[in-house]
Amino acid sequence: MAPVILQGRVLVGSAAAYCIANIAWWLQPSLIHEVMVRYDVGEAAGGLVASVEMTTIALSAALFGKLLDKLSLLRIATIGAVVTLSGAAWSMTIQDYDLLLISRPLTGFGEGAMLAAASASLANFREPDRAYGIINIAAILFCSAAVFSLPLTAGYFNLEYIVFPTIFAGIAVLSLLIPLLSGTADQGRVRSTPAALPAHGIFSLKLVTLVIAVFIVSLGAGAMWSFYYLLGDMAGLGEGEIHNAVGMAALVSVFGALSATLVGARFGRLLPLTLGVLILIVAINTMSHWHHPLAFRLGAAFNVVGMYFLVPYFLGYAADQDPSGRDAAITAGAFLLTGAVGPYLGGYIIENFGAASMGWIVLIANSFSWYLFLTIDRSLKKGAALPV
Question: Do residues 357 and 284 make contact, with C-beta atoms less than 8 angstroms apart?
């Protein structure tokens, strides 16, 4: 991997873009709940709003990942900022549910551009795992502040619905930092040298294996995250207590990203990744099998701690496979795609088979994903590429 010195301004710009890409995902429980109340729709319709946005983010990240050799990171992020702000502003004014289903994909398209720019900008860093850990810390702290601010902002401004204004305000502030992405190598382009082209095709077995492994692991955690309010209610907590538990879980997840930043790849990636997968299995089984306030609080916290401990290693594998940043952009999109599938999958399983079934499903699915990561790790260590 071509080494690139960790440039502070690029890191700040990347963190800002990454926060914009993640803010809707972090506010998803509150967003779904508010959509259901405001537009008088059911769980499926509320989840659909989040699903179409997250799907568009993933598709947009893949699209801009393919355009990294044609557009500078700054141009991609600028497109993202303009489109995201437009969609977020429109969402604040909409009174009709059907129009909301149009505005959220528009917002998601811009968020996907932000995600691609942020993920690709760090792929050539000397220690990408730590760099990805840092921008995840920034996203966790910023988005946790947004989660905690919701009831305070609503009370201060005497507003009943505050999620979409909060998203718009966050995007507007962070967009001011996007010009810092112009500090990347080669006047803002992702490649430091002409040789740093994508290492393989977009449908290579190497990239597909990584995307599937990341998607499966993230899906279980995302499905549980989407229904924290339902799980908290099952555990006997009131709405205010659930909101505090969700906010606290979001805040403590910084320890996951911080741990990944401190540890980096000094012990390789497979060992910390194994630990993260085990944390998710235990956390999700705790929430799904033990309906008790303490079990919910602990499970909710460790679910996101484990998830954000894993994300830097997901992207670290992508960076090693492809220093151009294309794989990282697509892998990051696969992670957020779980926000599209998770609400429906989690809702369907919990409603038809009970919450306990989620624990067993995650145990089996995460074990399979760990095996896929094992094959990826061995391939990278041996320097033997999977078939392209």
Answer: no
Of the candidates 106, 222, 115, the residue with the CA atom closest to the CA atom of residue 168: 106
Query: What's the CA gap between 122 and 131, in Å, rounded?
Result: 7
The pLDDT value recorded for residue 156 is 59
Q: How far is CA 271 from CA 4, 266, 350, 370, 373, in A?
A: 26, 10, 32, 11, 11
Structural contact between residues 11 and 135, judged by C-beta atoms closer than 8 angstroms:
yes
Structure tokens at 288: 């799904």
Q: Number of H helices and number of E strands within the chain? A: 16, 0
The predicted model gives 339-352 an average pLDDT of: 75
Burial class (CB in 10 A: 0-12, 13-18, 19+), 267: exposed
Position of tokens 């989040």? Answer: 50
- Predicted local distance difference test score (pLDDT) of residue 199: 61
**Banded pLDDT at 193 (limits 50, 70, 90):** very low
CA distances (Å), origin 288, targets 39, 244, 248, 280, 352: 29, 19, 19, 12, 14
Encode pLDDT of 122-148 as tens digits: 888 878 888 899 999 999 899 888 877
Residue range 160-169, pLDDT digits in tens: 788 898 999 9
- Please count the other Cβ atoms lying within 10 Å of the Cβ belonging to residue 106: 18
DSSP class of residue 182 equals: G
Dihedral through CA 50, CA 53, CA 56, CA 62, nearest 10?
Answer: -80
- Alpha-carbon torsion 292, 298, 304, 306, what sign? negative
The SS3 call for residue 268 is: strand
Contacts (Cβ under 8 Å, ≥6 apart) of 85: 110, 168, 171, 172, 175
What is the C-alpha to C-alpha distance for residues 374 and 368, in angstroms, rounded to an integer? 10
What are the phi and psi torsion angles at 94 (to 5°)?
A: -75, 130
User: Could you give the 3-state DSSP secondary structure of residue 266?
Assistant: strand
For residue 152, give both structure tokens.
Answer: 């305070």
**Residues paired with 266 in a beta bridge:** 268
Report phi then psi at 76, rounded to 5.
Answer: -60, -45
State the amino acid at position 311 in one-letter form: V
188 phi-psi bin (left φ>0, alpha ψ -120 to 50, beta other): left
